[in-house]
Design goal:
By secondary structure, this protein is of the alpha+beta class. The chain contains 24 helices and 14 strands. It is elongated.
């Protein structure tokens, strides 16, 4: 009998790695994952093989030993060693200390090794990693290399290991889920963690806990943070909190007061620069546009070009178009051509966009420098305060004023109070005036009803007065009510949406065309052709649409009409709104999300989302793969 068969069970042998094979009797049929083998290889490289594999001698069909050994227990370790040999970290014939077992059934002991064991509790894992960091001074990268996991996973475990001992004890007793523990770990403040836990009611969702843990902090996606910049905030001494377990969008800024000061100072600097460069009387920096101030707004007017300026602009534009046609197909322009493009752009920019504010309005007016919903600065120009309005022309001028025009004497000047008044046309009685003007009104109504074009002009004129002029200058006898609801109060930033910006641009384009004085608005509106008249009507009417479903102002009929109007207009909300976590998905339930996916992408996509789950379970929650595995 061959000597190999005489090896006593329980003997420890050093067997060359290339003489070890996978046992067909191994109870584990599902292959080891790549990550698990990587972790085992890293562990063995750092600490050696802590537990010897169990093997049995391989025999051929004739029952004779082949010289190889089958690994009954420790297939994962064999694969990890083979991986190290493949990477040339060890020799293919590296001796591996193994225990020979010929007394037991290989399949049974393989099954027993995988079944009769208890995994380490995740809390023990988290605290053990923290101990390696605290006591041995190992960095996240060092620990990751020793256990075959990424530095980010180590940081997550270290953060969990630093959770309040009180909450960790509750987690050990299954009083908290791992998702809830991760939500508490967004901050390392034990006092705040315990305070939030004590305040929890029936709703203990991870999202609620994370929101409570960060309620006094400012998300990095906040418009103030985007405007100031996280780097500038950090340079000013601000601290940033980051969630290691979710896509936190850059984390949270902990010092809201510092952020407000930085944003205010930056806005003030921009406001000062705009005022000094453009010559406005005042400039005010605001986080939000101060709606409701009631001040008059003026707009730039078209600039009349001289013949020489018009010729220069035409020549530059023609040259630009010629260069574009000549070099359009060339990706890398010659330096001289690229320089000429920039020179033409600069020359055209110097001429401006063809509009300008009246110098007198600039001298009396001002600007609001506001922070948009997207963190970008908006400069709202042309605001005239009541105290800065030009004085109204006086019918009489003080006689002793310098350069004053003497007032004409009144017809009765010098007449004695006792002298009888000259007989003349007595004024009409108030009652008669009411009677006559009522007849005039009904006559106008009949006339307009018989002339649709004139009626349309009168309607557009009345709406335009309400849209572009202050209330005291809305001189129209057509009584039309136009109310434009303030929507930013319901959805902050809606005026900065794509549709909101298009409306603002359209409004400013019309406002620039209207005459300064409301008394001249009729002539402007009456001079529009049919297409422009309808365009202006559409703009004015559109500002009166209100489809907001306010529970304090229930208007079911108006809400139903909004749906009809949307269908008639072919409303496509993708042009102005997209569902994001902050705008929709993070504010609704999972069934609602599945319903939206089903509507947008079909039943198969919804089924896939439901099957996979809408939130990814972190793969690192299981303990590190044991070197015994």
């Amino acid at each position: 009998m061959n000597a190999q068969t005489l090896i006593e069970s329980g003997t420890v042998l050093d067997i060359p790695l290339n003489k070890l094979k996978k046992s067909p009797k191994n109870a584990r049929k599902t292959p080891h994952g790549d990550a698990a083998i990587e972790a085992l290889a890293a562990s063995i490289a750092a600490k050696g093989l802590l537990q010897a594999p169990v093997v049995e001698p391989e025999t051929g069909e004739d029952g004779e030993p082949t010289g190889f050994y089958l690994v009954t227990i420790g297939e994962g370790r064999r694969l990890a060693l083979a991986l190290r040999a493949k990477r040339k970290e060890i020799r293919k014939s590296e001796p591996v200390r193994c225990v020979v077992d010929t007394a037991n059934d290989p399949h049974e002991i393989s099954l027993d090794e995988n079944v009769t064991r208890t995994d380490m509790h995740p809390a023990d894992q988290f605290e053990a990693f923290k101990r390696l960091s605290d006591e041995r001074g190992l960095s996240a990268e060092d620990i990751g290399a020793r256990f075959g996991v990424s530095a980010q996973v180590v940081r997550q475990r270290l953060r969990l290991g630093a959770v309040s001992p009180k909450l960790m004890a509750i987690y050990r007793e299954d009083g908290l889920t791992l998702d809830q523990l991760m939500a508490f770990a967004v901050s390392e403040d034990h006092e705040r963690q315990e305070q939030v836990y004590d305040q929890l009611s029936w709703n203990r969702s991870a999202a609620l806990i994370r929101r409570a843990m960060t309620e006094a902090k400012v998300p990095a996606s906040d418009r103030r943070a985007v405007f100031v910049g996280v780097d500038a905030y950090a340079e000013a001494g601000g601290q940033t909190l980051r969630d290691l377990f979710t896509e936190d969008g850059g984390g949270w800024l902990e010092d809201a007061a510092l952020l407000d000061r930085l944003a205010g100072a930056k806005l003030e600097a921009i406001a000062t620069e705009v005022r000094e460069r453009e010559g406005w009387k005042w400039a005010t920096a605001c986080l939000d546009y101060p709606h409701g101030h009631g001040w008059r707004r003026v707009y730039p007017r078209p600039v009349e070009r001289t013949e020489d300026e018009a010729a220069q602009i035409a020549a530059l534009s023609e040259e630009y178009d010629a260069l574009v046609s000549q070099w359009d197909a060339v990706e890398d322009l010659p330096p001289e051509v690229e320089a000429r493009f920039k020179a033409i752009d600069a020359a055209l920019d110097a001429f401006g966009d063809g509009t300008a504010y009246d110098p007198d309005e600039v001298a009396r007016g001002g600007v609001f420098v506001v922070l948009g919903h997207d963190g970008q600065v908006r400069v709202e120009r042309g605001l005239i305060r009541p105290e800065d309005e030009a004085p109204a022309p006086s019918a009489e001028t003080e006689a002793d004023g310098e350069g004053a025009i003497p007032a004409e004497p009144r017809p009765d000047a010098g007449a004695s109070e006792d002298e009888p008044e000259d007989e003349g046309l007595a004024p009409l009685s108030e009652r008669l005036v009411l009677d006559l003007t009522a007849h005039k009104t009904v006559g106008l109504r009949e006339a307009l009803a018989s002339d649709p074009t004139l009626a349309l002009t009168a309607l557009v004129h009345a709406l335009a007065l309400k849209t572009f002029y202050p209330p005291y200058e809305q001189s129209s006898c057509v009584e039309v009510k136009l109310v434009s609801a303030y929507l930013d109060g319901h959805a902050p930033g809606v005026s900065e949406s794509p549709a909101g910006r298009r409306i603002a641009e359209r409004h400013e384009a019309w406002a620039q065309r209207f005459p300064r004085e409301s008394a001249e608005a009729w002539g402007f509106v009456a001079g529009l052709d049919g297409g422009e008249l309808l365009d202006l009507l559409a703009h004015c009417v559109s500002l009166g649409v209100n489809a907001v479903r306010n529970p304090m102002d229930r208007k079911p009929g108006a809400w139903a009409h909004a749906e009809v109007l949307a269908q008639a207009a072919g409303l496509d909300m993708t042009r102005t709104w997209a569902p994001t976590v902050s705008s929709y998905l993070g504010r609704i339930t999972k069934p609602r999300i599945l319903e939206a996916v089903r509507e947008a992408a079909g039943e198969d996509a919804a089924f896939l989302c439901a099957d996979l789950g809408l939130s990814c379970s972190p793969g690192w929650i299981t303990p590190p793969t044991s070197t015994a595995g």
